[in-house]
Amino acid sequence: MKNINAFLVVIAAIVLTLVSTRVQAQKESPFADITQAQQICGPKISPDMLRGKVVFVEYWGTNCGPCRQTMPHLQEMYSQLAKTGMFCVIGNHVQEYTPDTDKFLKERGITFPVYQHLSLPVNRDFSGIPRAFLFDVTGNVVAEGNPAEVANKVPALLKEAVVMKKTGILNAMDSSSVPGGLKHPFADSDLGKFQKTALAMFMPGKPWLANYKKLQKAAESSDNSEAQTALETLNSYLNDEIIRLLDLSKTDPAKAYVSIDRLNRSIKGMDQERALADVVKKLSADKNVKDLSAILLNIADFESNASQMKPAAAKNKAQGLFNSLKTYCDRKDLSKELKKEAFDAARELKQKYGAGSKG
């Protein structure tokens, strides 16, 4: 333990001399107001449903000739690309709402979500409609202007989004994707044009050592400020994450075990790996810790898919997980920390999905 503390002091001393550019809180969804807006067409959607998707928004009006002409093209794009699960079209009607608005949408067979005066954080300095805005998976506006010209940018952006999903970058940007809150080191950073490159360089579950050495070498160049900032961000992240996981292992050992295992697979061969060696050895030797961590991973996997399941199926699955936790809590040799972890997880399943409730 003394070696661990000494190592952490060294890391902390180094990090305190660096200028960190990390963003401490995740940016609010640009679609945060969508649940309060008046919806006049299409399926109901929420900010969470749009998270990690490419979103095409068109400002339009029923009494606008060019707007009426573009709507069939929007419907065609929506019908073709929404099935990827990574794309959505939203119509934002900004003229006066009348019965003719509903009539027009019905006659044109529009099935994508359409809202009346939806409030979005976009540039409003435009004089006419139709006007399109294209959001990437991080919620940033990457294109705006003539709908046809903006629509031309959708395929490439969508292809990039699909790759990000397959490689795990999107999940890495969501702290809820892993029990214990382990995230990608650059998920909350602000590295400008280097941001996507930094995300792709250090993927969770894949060793970072080779890329870390490349980043160190690039940062040695006095004119490579982006690499220098990225290295500072990564070192700061690792320092904070190691300290957090050491603390977490005392209160929530199963969650800590999951997160430490993920992190260790990434930092294998790096100096920071030694800081967690003792706690890894201790947690790995406890069968109760490993068994609960497996249940927690199953719960996380279930919750990531629960919104796509029918309510009855979701409740049945939650009940099965609840029963697993209940059986686990009957063990005689559980520590009070593990028992509390299991109890808290069961209580969450009950509150969210009605698991364990009578009837």
Describe the structure.
The chain is of the alpha/beta class. The chain folds into three domains: 143 residues, no CATH class; 115 residues, Glutaredoxin (3-Layer(aba) Sandwich); 66 residues. Helix content is 53%, strand content 9%. The chain contains 15 helices and six strands. A six-stranded mixed beta sheet has the order 1-4-3-2-5-6. α3 links the parallel β2 and β3. α1 runs antiparallel to α10 and α9 crosses α10. The longest helix has 27 residues. It is flat, with a radius of gyration of 24 Å.
Summarize the helix and strand pattern as letters. HEHEHEHEEEHHHHHHHHHHH
Compute the separation of the termini in Å: 50 Å
Helix content: 40-55%
Structural class: alpha/beta
Query: How many DSSP helices?
Result: 15
Q: What Rg do the Cα atoms give?
A: 24 Å
What's the total count of β strands? Answer: 6
Question: In total, how many domains does the architecture comprise?
Answer: 3
Mean pLDDT comes to 85
Strand content: 5-15%
Sum up the overall morphology in one term.
flat
Strands of the widest sheet, in order across it, are 1-4-3-2-5-6
> How is the main sheet built?
6 strands, mixed
Quickly list its features.
53% helix, 359 residues, disordered N terminus, Glutaredoxin, alpha/beta, flat, 9% strand
